[in-house]
Design goal:
single chain, alpha/beta, Spore Coat Polysaccharide Biosynthesis Protein SpsA, Chain A, 13 helices, globular, EC 2.4.-.-, Glyco_trans_2-like, Nucleotide-diphossugar_trans, glycosyltransferase
Amino acid sequence: MPYVSVIIPAYNAMAYLPETLESVFQQTFPDFEVLIIDDGSSDRTVEWASQIADLRVKLICQTNQGSSVARNTGITAAQGEYIALLDADDIWEPTKLEKQVRLLEENPSVGLVDTWTVLVNQQNKSTGKVIVSHAEKDAWKQLVQFKTVCCCDSTPLIRRSCFETVGLFNPDLPFLEDLDMWIRLASRYEFGVVKEPLVRYRQHPGSKSTNCQGMLEAFRTIIEKAFESVQVELLPLRDRGYGRVNLYLAWRAINNKDYEQAVHFNYQAIAHYPQLIFSWDFIRQSIALGLLKRLGSQTYDRVRSLVQTMRRSAGEWNSRLNKQSPPAQTSEKTAI
């Protein structure tokens, strides 16, 4: 019986799926099975996956029903003690599973282990940004405040027994179905985190996260359900969650070049959680909105691209410096 079941939902994913699967094969922890769930692809996914000789890889085909159903199909078919979710376009660093399994083995009360995440573009080039998670112990309060826990679906390693307790992914949620799952898990189990960037999350233009209103409605459904029967002293966290999700959606609207919608979400963020006005994220966003209004979207995009290039160059330079440093002088923090 495999120790870890890696579940990869795939829908017309041949542009990235071979590279994603190769990152699984390169894991230093070899005791796994891979379940590729083809969600009604019309490209060569089925033909390609059927020819894989490695017996650890299994192909399961279904009609197109969406990523939540595909993940549920994989979880139901999985034989491993631990479940690792992996999107078909993301990349794992070689030690990801090894370090997560070790943390779960050493902490029986932990149900989910997260990692840090590097954002990359479509060509797998780092944007210079690392998303840091502090999902330790009681992560529920962080999740309902829309703080960063499980940056993407490809980071967590979860005990299979946890799904038997909280159920599977909700296929009726068109957005944020992963957040709904993490909140349910956090209501019953402690979380842990490997504080290293072990996942490369590929960003795409035109992703479903551009539907800001749909995401807000999904968040409202999830958050109201989460607060149905909580203690009175926890209720203020709900407004903080609405504040943070509106701040996030304002950034999404900026990326969509929808200035009016961005301003609307920005105002709603402060209306729900006035203390956000003192946060660095709000200050940065206010500067971005000012630049967008004054310079226009094209000039703003050029400025943002320049900043991202400088950030990426700084990250690459720091990485080279760290590689030249003696191992005894290198720490996780300095390596970021």
